[in-house]
Amino acid sequence: MIEPEVFQRYAKYNAWMNGKLYGVCSTLDDDLRKRDQGAFFKSIHSTLNHILFGDRAWMGRFTGRDYEIKPMGVDLYEDFEALRAARTEMDQDILDWTSGLGRPWLEGSLTWTSGSDGKTRSQVTWQLVLHMFNHQTHHRGQLTTLFSQQGLDIGPTDMPWMPDT
Which of 29, 113, 117, 133 has an alpha carbon 20 to 30 Å from 54's alpha carbon atom? Predict the structure, then answer.
């Protein structure tokens, strides 16, 4: 079992890293952000959309809040600034939500129906929360590779280098 404080730390890391990603992205023109660069979700822009999609899907399951999502692979936002604003809002939602997490909820289970394959599953809740954060990190790693291919350096990405440590 993972203590709630670990997820609070992951939420801070998530917000820090997203701030760094969007900071670099704001220096790019829209054509470069949306250019198919051979990533799983093709472009920087679509990968950013997918991370937000995943967070909205999981946070909706965790909280019962009705976040707008579209089918996987369909961008939630075409406009970068609208995407950035939605990302900032989601990061705050995750920070706020993790601040209230408790062991009883984390030790429970969650049943959901996947939008990708239509199957209903149940799993221990803390494992699903860990998956949400792992999903973010996985796709941010893809983005840092795309940045590197453009000669862009996002700077340190490791949790011990977060400003508040």
Answer: 29
